[in-house]
Fold this sequence. Notes:
2 strands
Amino acid sequence: MPARQAPRKPSSTRSPVADTERAEPSPARHIPTTLGEAFSAFARHRSPRLLFVCTVLAALRRSQLGPLSAADFVAAAALLAFWPLQEWLIHVFILHFRPRKVGRWTLDFAVPKAHRAHHRDPWDYELLFIPFHSYAYSLPLLLLSWHLAAPTSGVAWSGITLHLALALQYEWVHFLVHTRVPPRFGPYRIVWRNHRLHHFRNENYWYGVTRLEADWLLGTAPEPAAVPVSPTARTLGG
Length: 238
């Protein structure tokens, strides 16, 4: 686990909620303010479109392999239980990967570079989607891993379909948090606040985007008032 500052009470008396709500984009940049505007902007992007098409194709393939069995529901339950930990692990060890010197060379990768750009300008929603080039290896890896792990092809395609649907949901929730659409729905408001704390209070905490269980389990969801405002939340130390 990467090193994190120990939680302590910050010297500032500013409200942690204010830290999430005061962070506003430049007035010159149009950010969706309604669900309709948000969905229209979301649907224009390649990553959500690809995930939607792949989810539909995977569901059609699963429908050709016979009725659902108990094993399909077990696989779905296992994936749903693992999903928050997957979000946490990817966020901590891939998205927040820091460049490393290896002799004369600097080791860095395209995905964490894109994520650092997203932190620098969290209101540029062109930067927040899953990098499109990553599908060239993540989709084949998804297909291979499910077919190796599942007892039958039908269970594998059930898992693949749900995994793609959850990835599409991840893109939608992450996109929506970075708009001006008010977070009125209770559970979504908790997710919204969690992610904005990560961006605007301290990047070393609150890694969950659609699910927060891993943050609760692994100690990265402390009371915001106990965590100092990080000077590197926008730069990730770069």
